[in-house]
Amino acid sequence: MKLRISIAAAAVAAVTGALAPAGAAFAQAKEQFFPVLSYRTGAYAPNGVPFANGYVDYLKLINARDGGINGVKATWEECETGYATDRGVECYERLKGKGPTGATVVHTLSTGITFALTDKSFTDKIPIITAGYGRADSVDGQVFKWNFPLGGTYWGAADMLVQHIGKKEGGLDKLKGKKIALVYHDSPYGKEPIALLQERAKMHGYDLSLLPVTHPGVEQKATWLQIRQNRPDYVFLWGWGVMNSTAIKEAVAVGYPRDKMYGVWWAGAEPDVRPAGDGAKGYNALTFMAPAGIGKVHQDVIKFVHDKGQGTGPKNEVGEVLYNRGLVAAMMSVEGVKRAQTKYGKKPLKGEEVQWGLENLALDQKALAAIGFAGFADPISTSCVDHEGGSSARIHTWDGSKWVVGPDRYTADQQIIKPMIKASAAKYAQEKKIAVRDCAKELASSK
Amino acid sequence: MFYRENGQFKSSYREDQQILGIRQDRWFIFGLIAFAFLVVPFVASDYMFRAILIPFLIVSLAAIGLNLLVGYCGQISLGHAAFMAIGAYAAYNLVVRFPQLNFLLVLVLAGLIAAGVGILFGLPSLQIKGLYLGVATLAAQFFIDWVFARVKWFTNYSPSGSVSTAPIELFGYKFDSPVERYVLVLAVVIVFALMAKNLVRGHIGRSWMAMRDMDVAAEVIGIRPMYAKLSAFAVSAFYAGVAGALWGFVHLGSWEPAAFSINFSLNLLFMIIIGGMGSILGSFIGAAFIVLLPITLNQVLPPLGALVGMNFGTAMASHLEFMIFGALIIFFLIVEPLGIARLWAIGKEKLRLWPFPH
Amino acid sequence: MAAKKNGPVIALGAVLAAGLAAPLVTGSPLGFYLEVLIGGLMAGVLYSLVALGFVLIFKASGVFNFAQGAMVLFAALALARLAEWLPAWIGIPAGFPALTLAFVLAAGIMVGLAWVIERIVLRPLVAQDPVALLMATLGVTFFLDGFGQTIWGSDIYKIDLGISKDPTMILESMFQGGILVSKEDLIAAVIAAGLVILLALFFQKTATGRALRAVADDHQAAQSIGIPLNRIWVIVWAVAGFVALVAGMVWGAKLGVQFSLAQLALKALPVVILGGFTSIPGAIIGGLIIGVGEKMAEVFLGPPLVKMWDLAGGGIENWFAYVLALLFLMVRPEGLFGEKHIDRV
Amino acid sequence: MRQRKIGEVILDVRNISLSFGGVKALQGISFDVREHEVRAIIGPNGAGKSSMLNCINGVYHPQEGEIVFRGEVRRDMDTHHAAESGIGRTFQNLALFKGMSVLDNIMTGRNLRMKTGILAQALHLGPARAEELREREFVEHVIDFLEIQAYRKTPVGRLPYGLQKRVDLGRALAAQPQVLLLDEPMAGMNLEEKQDMCRFVLDINDEFGTTIVLIEHDMGVVMDISDRVVVLDYGKKIGDGTPDEVRNDPEVIKAYLGVSH
Questions:
Q1: Is the ipTM of this complex over 0.85?
Q2: Cβ of C317 under 8 Å from any chain A Cβ?
Q3: B39, B40, B42, B47, best to mutate vs chain A, most A CBs in 10 Å
Q4: Of the residues A95, B34, B131, D150, which has the maximum number of CB atoms within 10 A of its CB?
Q5: CATH number of the domain that D60 lies in?
């Protein structure tokens, strides 16, 4: 009985809390609120945890080292999505009104959640950063005003992988007749690259076979038996979570050479290779923005956060691939706010104002070095038309104990991708009946 | 004292057959509906609408559908979310291919298409029962999931396999804001809940319950098992289909097949078992329980932990949420295996006599 | 009469056999065909192990234990984490000694768990509707999922049995390219077979085992010869917990121990349907049939289907097991080895 | 004394054989039932009495023989056809719909006559409502007849056994059958309840003219109320005739009293 009463009381508390106008009490506080959608449980926790730790650690660092973003303290709240779309939407709705100005910018950390939130962004006016994931067509800022796939999309990633193997074979024309198998997570995430790979297949004449793997991806026996039968020249791995390590293990079991396997940048972190042990040696993956390693920013994190006992996760994960990507993601949020502050002033900003900041990012090598990200992030320069801000990546290879970054840097071929983006974005605009922005006009009027 | 039916006499069978025979019940329900229509839209926040009320209402509708099948007709379904998927994708394709169709008509058509598929997957029920039938419905779940993930036509050749819906428009009026959407969903759900109630108190409902309670006896008094079971599958899938279309169009806006996964199906089953099998009211209670409990726990646990000096991260809170959720299911089953609706009924019976013990 | 009843069964068997033979006729190399077959059998062994747990509990207590998958995960997590922690705690050498001790401890934990489940969940619900009991096991599933991750963590953990993961080729002289087998798979099969033999001995030779069989046959009769039902339930849940531990070990060694292990348990449902809810041999043979069937279907039937209808990838193994079980049910509702049930009025 | 004269043969069972696996439940049973009569089937446990009723209304399908009902010859019955053509039935082990009220249980007896469609029902349209009221009126008549007015809204599971038996009878009666098969209607009742039940059976026979086939163990009751009796033993017919004839049949006496089985 007592239990029931307390539950009822709790429910009432939650409801009244939700009903009360959010943040009235903090109206004067100089705080910028960052919602953190994360997943620390479930099938994708091994990958979700280091990312979330990196993200939160960076916000802690900003407060501890710089006293906030130009004096505006960063606040945040985590919400567990479990990588499920409906929970993600609930989390977003819960957090979007918090803080004096509401949510600043949201990283969805899931393609499914990105799709769902994109629809809401037009009324909520909260920018969505999907650094290296999300929907590829959202590069088109004229349609997707609120989406920022900063630093890369899956179309770009697939494009770079094709370029890389083309180079290995001695020219893209040599790909004719080659067989490529795409082993992908059976979700919008895994399906995104297909369109581009098919486009490229038409150009270069390689043979593409599609092998979907069902969530959560622990059953891949049949997939790899097919690979054993067809002996593709290359396998692209578009997995997430436990699916990646399982894929590598199954590759070992059927004797498929690991050095012919290329993962997307979400299939190239320590949790993906470690469970496979020695078998993972020689496995390759894309790495964008943040490879593994320690740089200035990491030293700061250790000094200002971990050494003070404030670290979110274990200290030894600082510098791992996904942790670093969390850091970079948080950096993007913060830099967006900073940029926006130059226009709107050093005060807590609304999502709408941060959108301007994100759309006018100009982070060159020098600027990145100044904030400690030299070597851990690539330059980003966005505009109203281009919300991606540049897309480049390298290949790194697991040598059994660490990731070794290859020498070549690839850049997505915009000639192929641009028209696809245009077409897809236009279709979306038409389906959703969205008024397309006129960037030239906006630029003119702002001057 | 206050909840008594003394002096409320029925002078015709028609009066006796009313849904809410007792005046106090009638007032209560009318009051609740009036509150939902007239007060809630003005006081609730966006968060309440979008994250709690709208999903709760839609899921209730799906739970009613499942309850008609499982609770009233006794045919188990472990794959009801698949019928929701049918509704959602049917609605999507109708809207894409016939953009001028009225949204309400789309809902009904989506429901009918789901009903057709429901009949198809209900056919095994003529031969098998119980958990065995559960496998047939699981087959439906996985097969339908697969079809929508694989056959490109259903997603209108969307490269990512995810579909996005157009804004909802009815008679030239756009349902954009959360409040408008809430009112729309509320109206649909109330109408359909009322229809479900009408069905179960009529002869079709009785034939379902007869199949559930004693199928051989039902046959002997002339109820056709085929008609009773398949009509239950059809109606149930119809409800799921309508709910699925609403879930896709009103709640999510864009979705992929994973939005209607096996977990959704199991959750629906939890709802009706916890709420009460064979009770329309129970479907609502169960839906509220399953929708609200995780969210509430998730929000309440960290502050509660802080009170006792513990700092759980979201991971811990989420694990605790699983544990408490599981424990509560067991707790409710032990206290009242027939569901919360039954507790409610017992409570009402006690209230009738209150304050006199007999 | 008999022929009429068995007609559909024979027809389905014939279709399956034809499907099994079809790849060979259409020109798949025999070596590869055998590899798929072996792969399917290995997957089937794992399904069988989980299904075995279901059947044990269903046979003895009539409870359809949805939590079997969660128990597999929980046991595997306990094993993997204890093997990792023990060397640091008590200084025994890592590797095989630690693993052995961890196995013993994990078995103890599963027995304890069985006791707790019987006390807290089953006893208050005794004589309730089967649906209520099924739901209760779903509650247990949720609880174990959360509890397991709380105490053991939610990362991917390794169980290292010290077996090489590299494949070996056999019969290279007989087939072009040879047949690829992995040692790990063979050991898994041996462990599974050992477990089955152990269970058979337990049921045949020990007094407790015989008592369990008595309960399965007739609850009342068993009680009347003086076997306390409560203890029987604890024992059978403990045995199922032990089976879960073995399944978790084999699976964990192959795929790594992670939350998603629990999800595979759903596959046990078509397996027990196929084999019959109360038959131990049924669980094993059912598992093998499902394993072989779905791998064969995916590898040989998937690609042509994809070509024919221009599908976005194969993946038919997701539903194949269930559809197979459904077809089977339509022709033989009691399963391969199940008991026939006649309604009485 | 009786208002209706016993008429022509309405139900003729010819040479019925039924077996389950290897067990022969019925072997070449033949008997007939005349309109308006009360026909009893008796025999020791396991004689095949219930199986016989189950064959007549199509729950079981005999391997041999045929059933002639109102001139229509059938190889075997199906339950729905039996119900539709006017064969009603009560059950030995209560087969009431436990989750439903007394009223709803008896209302299911009228289901055969209720034709309005799903949509009309869901929207509670005029025809559906009128139909419901019309059938309700008939059911109230049955409820009055069986004197269970007070329990209308009670879930049947909560009623005492004797009353449940009455509801079972009411449900069968509501369908207005021509032939009513009663499977041990008085089993487990006390004397008073038995007397009530006897009265109901005779009244039904009399008032509605319903032909009655009943299985009963209580010889006193059987001899009192039935016009003719069939005796089964081990799946075979060993006697057939008026109560007096049967009572004096040596075969029957042997089966009942003689060599113990």
A1: yes
A2: yes
A3: B47
A4: A95
A5: 3.40.50.300
